[in-house]
Amino acid sequence: MDIKSISDIPAWIFYPIKLWADKDSDNFNILVGTGMILLVRSFIMVWILVRRLGESDERTSGIYLKAMSNALVVLIVCEIIFPSTYLVNQFKLYKYAFAMIAAAIYLFSKYRKEMR
User: Fold this and answer.
1) What's the pLDDT tens digit per position in 19-31?
2) Are 72 and 103 in contact (CB under 8 A)?
3) Cα separations (Å) of 29 from 37, 74, 94, 101, 104?
4) Alpha carbon distances (Å) from 22 to 7, 37, 65
5) Alpha-carbon span 59 to 53, nearest angstrom
6) How far, CA to CA in Å, does 97 sit from each of 7, 37, 74, 112?
7) DSSP secondary structure code for residue 55 in this structure
8) Residue 56 to residues 8, 51, 64, 113: CA-CA distances in angstroms?
9) Cβ atoms of 97 and 35 closer than 8 Å
10) 12 or 95, which is more confident?
11) Transmembrane residues, as ranges (predicted)?
12) C-alpha R_g of the chain
């Protein structure tokens, strides 16, 4: 695959994943399965950390807002980086998983900071 412009870089990076997933149905299932596991675990991490931080009040609402704004930034960056021509739904799994991981990391850092 030739790179002729900056917009060809994401396709160049993710095209080997497409070839690997198209080669065998087991490879496709591994791609979807790992994305699903990552997504479910990240949602569970965010849910646990939200429960540990407590009810929504003036202290925690700012924390939740910042965590979700971090998730939005990661989602926008992933939207720019991931290709939109192939494996669209599979990459959506990874986009949302990475966004929730970013929110969980922020929530975990705030939780550790407040518990010290």
Assistant:
1) 888 898 899 899 9
2) no
3) 12, 25, 14, 22, 26
4) 23, 21, 39
5) 10
6) 24, 9, 10, 22
7) S
8) 44, 10, 9, 18
9) yes
10) 95
11) 28-50, 62-87, 93-109
12) 17
pLDDT: which is higher, 58 or 74 = 74
Question: Would you place residue 11 in the very low, low, confident or very high pLDDT band (cuts 50, 70, 90)?
Answer: confident
Q: Cα dihedral sign for 103, 105, 109, 115?
A: positive
Joined together, the tokens standing for residue 108 give 């975990």
Q: Extract long-range pairs of 48-53: CB within 8 Å, 24+ residues apart.
A: 49/104, 49/107, 49/108, 49/111, 50/107, 52/111, 53/107, 53/110, 53/111, 53/114
